[in-house]
Design a protein that fits this description.
heterodimer, A: mainly beta, six-stranded mixed beta sheet, five-stranded antiparallel beta sheet, B: seven-stranded mixed beta sheet, 11 strands, about 50% strand
């Protein structure tokens, strides 16, 4: 069945280091993936998305990697800043489905 | 400013007292959706709307109603709230009908049903 989850519920990194947030999915038909950032007291905010015809996509300070063989994607944040502290969600969709399936989220904490 | 606005932000009510959470977007988006967020369960879709007068059930529609009479508004109605509907609710919209485009979320409505 559909299941999108995360390897770690919390991640703590030093300011300036790179962060890697992982996400596993189980539906082999999934072909669209998206990452959201949710700061305290706010709604999720779009970060980056990727379709299954790609294995890497870069944004501003963020990179998403998709490994379809092992059904895994990751979000890399370069030079992590205090403003990156938030909960990060991955979500997936497959063609024809009218919904996103969200993972439970990873809380990223930045140490000064 | 492009945004999704939900009201109220916080609501405490009693079992059985009908309530409506409003959602409005100013981006002329066709697709709108409601989610609830619960610890350990993540975001789950309640209802969605592909366009005006077109609504459909999501994963957890029981106990909820929606309407889409105008493009910009998508209210969530709880006819007889129960304590298991205590949750954080998010409204979202996107320019393209369907979930394969980034969603714009509101800032949430925290509902407590006693």
């Amino acid at each position: 069945g559909e299941n999108v989850g995360l390897h770690l519920p919390t991640l703590s990194v030093q300011e300036g280091d790179n962060s890697i947030i992982n996400c596993a999915y189980s539906n082999s038909a999934s072909d669209y993936f998206i990452w959201y950032k949710q700061e305290s007291g706010k709604g999720p905010q779009f970060i980056i998305d990727i379709r299954s015809n790609m294995d890497k996509r870069q944004g501003q300070r963020v990179t998403v990697l998709l490994n379809k063989t092992v059904k895994h994607l990751s979000l890399q944040i370069a030079a992590t800043q205090p403003g990156d502290s938030a909960v990060y969600f991955c979500a997936e969709n497959h063609q024809g489905a009218q919904k996103l399936v969200f993972g439970q989220g990873t809380r990223l904490t930045i140490n000064p | 400013e492009a945004q999704v606005t939900q009201n109220p932000r916080y609501l405490i009510t009693v079992t059985g007292k009908k309530l409506t959470v409003t959602c409005s977007q100013n981006m002329n988006h066709e697709y709108m959706s409601w989610y609830r967020q619960d610890p350990g369960l993540g975001l789950r879709q309640i209802y969605y709307s592909m366009n005006v007068e077109v609504t459909d059930k999501g994963d957890v529609p029981e106990g909820y109603k929606v309407s889409r009479k105008e493009k910009r508004n998508f209210p969530l109605i709880l006819e007889s709230p129960s304590p298991n509907q205590t949750s954080l609710y998010f409204c979202a919209s996107s320019s393209v009908p369907g979930p394969r485009t980034p969603l714009h979320f509101g800032n949430g409505t925290r509902l407590t049903v006693t």
